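Researcher: We're teaching a course module on how sequence relates to structure. For the next exercise, students receive a sequence and then see the predicted structure as tokens, so they can try to spot secondary structure elements on their own. Here is the exercise chain.
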Amino acid sequence: DSTKVQLDLLIAALPKNPTPYELQAVEATAMAGLPQHAVQKAKSILNNYILFSKAEAELTAGFSDGNAPPPEKMLDAILALRRQHLGPQVADALFGAQEVQDRHGIQVSGVENDPKLTPQEKIARIETLQRTLPIGVASLDSELYASRSALKLEVKVAALRQQGSPETQIRQLREQEVGI
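Model: And here is the predicted structure for the students to work with:
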């Protein structure tokens, strides 16, 4: 993950249409400290990453007008670009955990936005999805925890209302759970 961050920082420093000199400066920074046998491979990865970044920016620029495809199709398009420009092995090394998390987030969002499901059903399905995540990726998903906590609070509030509890008790529960 730190390699991807470093690549992103290097590329962010480049102008939109970098000169050969600017590209050489980024290459020199990226290659500093690498053993000689790794330099050629690292240069290739860097150049392919630059091409991928440009292609991704072009792809996503066309979707800013609200005409974006569904999230699943957008993710698939970005994954295809990554593999096309970086190859499967490098793409997996740089983006593998993020891709699993992104796909998981799309699935959770689908569950959360399904009007046919009760809050209890949403919680159960989200927890089932959570259990399918590889160890390490699951711990990265703080948004999922917040979403599940909000759904659980919604279930508790509904139960209190069904029991005829006063609004003061509901407000007290909310303050206790999330401070609101």
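Model: If you want an answer key for the exercise: The radius of gyration is 22 Å. The longest helix spans residues 36-61.
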